[in-house]
Amino acid sequence: MRQDQPHLILVDGSGYIFRAFHALPPMTRPDGTPVNAVFGFTSMLGNFLTKHAGSHIAVVFDHSRTTFRNQIYPDYKAHRPDPPPELIPQFALIREATAAFGIACIELENYEADDLIAAYARVFAEEGGQVTIVSSDKDLMQLVNPSVQLLDPIKQKPIREPEVFEKFGVTPDKVVDVQALAGDSTDNVPGVPGIGLKTAAALVLEYGDLEGLLAAADQIKQPKRREALLANAELARISRRLVELDTHTPLPRPIDALLAQPPETGRLAAFLRDQGFRSLLHRLGLEGGEGMPAVSQPRHAPQFIAAQAAAAEPVGTPPEDAAAFGPYETVTDLDTLNRWVEEAQAAGTVALDTETDSLDALRARLVGISLAIAPGKACYIPVGHGPKPGTGDMLEAAPEAPVQIPLAQVLSALRPMLEDPGTLKILHNAKYDLEVLGRPQAEGANSGIDVAPVDDTMLISYSMDAGRHGHGMDELSLRHLGHSPVPYDQVTGTGRARIPFSQVELDKATAYAAEDADVTLRLWQMLKPRLRTDGALALYEHVERRMIGVLRDMEVEGIKVDGAELARIGEDFSARMITLEQRIHELAGKPFNVGSPKQLGEILFDEQKLPGGKRGKAGAWGTDASVLEDLAARGHELPREVMNWRQLSKLKSTYVEGLAAQIDARDGRVHTDFSMAITSTGRLSSTEPNLQNIPIRTEEGVRIRRAFVAKPGHVLLAADYSQIELRLLAHLADVPSLREAFAKDEDIHSRTAADIFHLEPGKVDKESRRRAKTINFGIIYGMSAFGLGARLGIGAGEAKGIIDAYFAQYPGIRAEMERLKEEARINGFVLTPFGRKLWIDGIASKDMARRGNAERAAINAPFQGGAAEIIKRAMARMPKALREARLNAKMLLQVHDELLFEVPENEVDQTAAIVKQVMEGVAVLRVPLRAEIGQGPNWAVAH
User: What is the mean pLDDT of residues 375-404?
Assistant: First the structure.
């Protein structure tokens, strides 16, 4: 869509109303009027307006239940029940809410909202405008064309012709023919009995349209289908009239009346105040009334909404005149390469991507480099391509490699541009490419290239949409550009026929690789401006982007592992597993394969007749951890010993054998890979090897940490945030007694025990403290009475009493939990204390179990996400702080709330002071942050 092109947004108001009504529990305003649908509708509309803007906008409603379609077919929608009594008084309030936002409210007697949407879309498109219909209603999919798209209001996913074809099996212009044949039980559209969507689509594709099919009905070979079509031909025609939207419905208001305009803040604030919507007043920044200055209001404020560019594109809408993806240029001579470098520096921005022969950035060999300096203008520079093995006759010379510029010359030509502070380099998953280019790649290439400054489209997306969807380039391209990039399998083949990328023919390699750079540049152009409007600019600029270099250096540094100690641990684990197996066989009364879930299930439930067994779909007994834990809690020794055996087996395979295999022979260290955009909470994850799941409270876990050692002349220094999530709980819920306890450095669990069990501070025993500790941490995860009871070994009734006492003592915590669930239900996301959006999947699910899990995630996410952001802030500031203090410590690992450093022996005290100062000073909360520091020759001692 051109930036100067008018853009009409049509919101399906009726869909919003019923979604809001069914998503929220009953709510009433001070005079007793039901308002849950009003609250949900107002929240969704306000939230929508912060993300989307158009030159014109309207909310369209159904006027009444009967329309002209009831005259055509009296049973049309006749089976639908009347609206619930508590919803009826909310219809007028919802229209009032729409007007308070300054948005045109459209409805017309005798017509459905869908007809009005169709008519406005037709007229606006004919006048040269673009239309976005905010609805996922399948009946509106018939309207999709190059000028009209739908936008799913929950998934925020555009619905265009490919999505319509996926739904109906035909293009949008044939949808009404398919619906006429298949009917619709929801609306009581009869259709033709015995014909479903797939059959209807196949018939329409074969015969062109409904009339073409009916004209040839007597020629249909299948007897039942032929008879059904002949007997119900008129019913099919009636059905088509019912499902086809009237694009010539009279327009109740002219197009000019739909011009977007800022709301009158006083009117909107008064409306919200009258309904008792205090949380929305706060969220929209309207507590101060009409005279509140715009500069002091948060980004949800109406002034922010009005400031959106009038022609801003909806998410996922590529420009109508966007350049084609390719063809791209293959660069095989130095003059051409120099020209590309000059053009990139003149442009000031260049997208960059590397092709290598390994996912391990520290071992990968460059195969090629791609550049893009404008949409559709990209190139591929091959540097490591060779002939396919087995080509050429044995009696002839082997075929030569394709013409390429020597790698050293390519890197020499690129270096000035890649290190130029005036040229922004745009990458996707920049950490990988920076590691590859940051080390010597060829003889004569001097040292590696320090690529800077950079932007990372993966992290830009992640900063705005953590938990909402994946952030891989292909997924983002399809989501935001409507373009599916060339698959890797298409150019390399699959299975045994797969060839390395270095052996792909250059024309195919160029089409694949240069497209990656092109897509990255287009994603950057589309997503980077959204950072400001989504309120994620500071998060990206000051945290996520700065983490690229920090994590790159940590991965390159790695951590030393004592292979001999690992071997000793492995021998000990093996011996203990043998002893455990013998004990397990003794308890079972016979030998069996302890590692076989099937054999174990037969022993437990067929032979020993233990209670609680459940068979899976394949008929085998379930023996997962939860089953064994339940049996062990009932006092059965065999499952308890199996759990011990499984833990040792996992530790041995994952950390003893797996870790030993990943020690780099060149430096005796392991180099983990930190994934930056995987978790929904903003936490980092660690792979190859995963160093974040080593148990820290077991003897075995401690032993494994003992194998991580400092190099000679150094010690390991561990810095761990103390009870950071509980501190965030005290901060967010503003609990005075917990704040006081943290301020005085009291034992928080003893203080909690004293508060909820009404004990004197000095009279708290170990059991009371244990219970308090369990609920302190459990409450952050939304633990139920059943879950708490299982943890404490008490009945659910007693556990509920403890939870009730907890909330009675700390009512602010319950209020905060309810606020978070409400925020997730209304917005689809919750916010960390620092403003990061964490999207909650399944919060509106009709499945009670899934919705319950989502609610628990909504409660937990701000605490995990807040903790993740605090430690990331500390990590981002740490290198500079150490450098300015002229200290030589290296940050090696981040594991949850802990940072691990390798420090020269003579700098330990100074380093500890700087680390503590940085970690405790990165955020200002209502309670102090505390970092605990330890040191030692290995990780176990330091921790």
Answer: 73
d(CA 338, CA 714): 46
How many CA within 13 A on the CB side of residue 59? Answer: 23
> Residues for the chain: how many in total?
943
Burial of 557: CB neighbours in 10 Å, binned 0-12, 13-18, 19+: middle
Q: How far apart are CA 390 and CA 394, in angstroms?
A: 9
pLDDT at 36: 86
Least Cα distance to 689 among 646, 654, 650 occurs for 654
What is d(CA 441, CA 445) in angstroms, rounded to the nearest whole number? 7
pLDDT given at position 23? 67
- Residues 342, 765: Cα–Cα separation, whole Å: 73
**399's tokens:** 């075929």
- From residue 584, alpha-carbon distances to 14, 119, 580, 629, 653 in Å are 63, 74, 6, 16, 20
Q: Where residue 543 falls among pLDDT bands split at 50, 70, 90?
A: very high
**Calpha distance 579→920 (Å, rounded):** 47
Three-state SS sequence of 197-218: HHHHHHHHHHHCCHHHHHHCHH
Dig out the tokens for 417 from the structure: 């541009």
Treating both helix axes as pointing N-terminal to C-terminal, what angle do 233-243 and 175-182 enclose, rounded to 10 degrees?
Answer: 130
Break the chain into its structural domains and give their ranges: 7-168+246-258, 329-558
| pLDDT tens per residue across span 16-36 | 787 777 767 677 887 788 888
Q: Which two tokens stand for residue 610?
A: 């233990």
Map 748-766 to HEC letters: HHHHHHHHHCCCCHHHCCH
Torsion sign across C-alpha atoms 530, 118, 44, 275: positive
Work out whether strand 454-456 and strand 366-374 pair parallel, antiparallel, or are unpaired.
unpaired
Three state DSSP letters for 773-788? HHHHHHHHCCCCHHHH
Give the 3-state secondary structure of residue 674.
strand
Q: With bands split at pLDDT 50, 70 and 90, how would you rate the model's confidence at 302?
A: very low
The pair of structure tokens assigned to 727 is 């501190």
Backbone angles phi, psi at 686, to 5 degrees: -125, 135
- Average predicted confidence (pLDDT) for the chain: 87
Terminal CA-CA length for the chain: 56
Q: Taking the alpha carbons of 53, 58, 62, 67 in that order, is the dihedral positive or negative? A: negative
- The 3-state DSSP class for residue 614 equals coil
What are the tens digits of pLDDT across the range 759-778?
Answer: 887 888 888 888 888 888 88
Q: Are 262 and 305 in contact (CB under 8 A)?
A: yes
Q: For residue 392, how many other CB atoms are within 10 A of its CB?
A: 13
Q: Does CATH number 3.40.50.1010 belong to domain 7-168+246-258? A: yes
Q: How far apart are CA 107 and CA 13, in angstroms?
A: 10
Residues in a beta bridge with 355: 368
Mean pLDDT of 238-258: 92
CA 207, 211, 216, 221 dihedral sign is positive
SS3 7: strand
**Crossing angle of helices 748-756 and 766-780, rounded to 10°:** 100
- Are residues 692 and 898 in contact, defined by beta-carbon separation less than 8 angstroms? no
Statement: the pTM of the whole predicted model exceeds 0.70: no
pLDDT at 294: 24
pLDDT value of residue 397: 47
- The span from the CA of 54 to the CA of 819, in Å, is 31
In this structure, which amino acid lies at residue 651?
Answer: L
Instruction: Write the class of the CATH domain 329-558.
Output: alpha beta
Determine the Cα–Cα distance for residues 509 and 402; give it in Å rounded to an integer: 12
Give per-residue pLDDT as tens, 881-936: 999 999 999 999 999 899 999 999 999 999 999 999 999 999 988 999 999 999 99
Pull the structure tokens for residue 743: 């301020």
